[in-house]
Prior knowledge:
single chain
Amino acid sequence: MAADFRLDGRCALVTGAARGLGQAMAIALAEAGADVAGVDIVDLDETRSRVESAGRRFTGINEDLRGPAAVRRVVDDAAAALGRLDILINNAGIIRRADSIDFSEADWDDVIDLNLKSVFFLAQAAARKFLAQGGRGKIVNIASMLSFQGGIRVPSYTAAKSGVLGLTRLFANEWAAKGINVNAIAPGYMATANTAPLRADAARSAEILARIPAGRWGQPDDLAGAVVFLCSSASDYVHGAVIAVDGGWLAR
């Protein structure tokens, strides 16, 4: 059974891999045996060091993913560098906060382009690559609590993450019979750069913590087990699912 959770010989592409959730998932995949291509717009040296310390190969790709041409280039570059592609982790994302009545078109477009549009075109490009290699692969999209709830002051983020969950199910419907597993992880309130403003607001942080049964903010490493499971043979009959890693938030 333990062998079913191993990723030896597999090659993974992780977006937003320089820090936070993306870095933690890249390291978890490497520790399970996968070689990793990490994508980000900032330096990836720390992730490289951690992956290589786990004994796996790492290739870093600096790219802005807002555009289908960049997406196709990233998938091709990752497959060329690693020799093949077996796994895609759609993690890269940004957040913009403002009251909906004041929300700008620029803040809408920036978030939708990265958090939703790039997810579709990365999955499309990866699926094409999987099929060209023989027809098997794993895609894990990073959803959110706001895939289920409305939130406040984050309209474009809520729209994008709701769309990510919908796309996950659509891809599963279309690609499960082709041997491609598409699933999602919905992190809860995690201690990352995206939530720094919430954690810095004592009243808002207390409100959030009061609803989390586990009584703490999540840490990036809390995603390790879920992402390894969804990328491994242990999840071969799991399609279109979403795993909430949320400290019990949705159960409250």
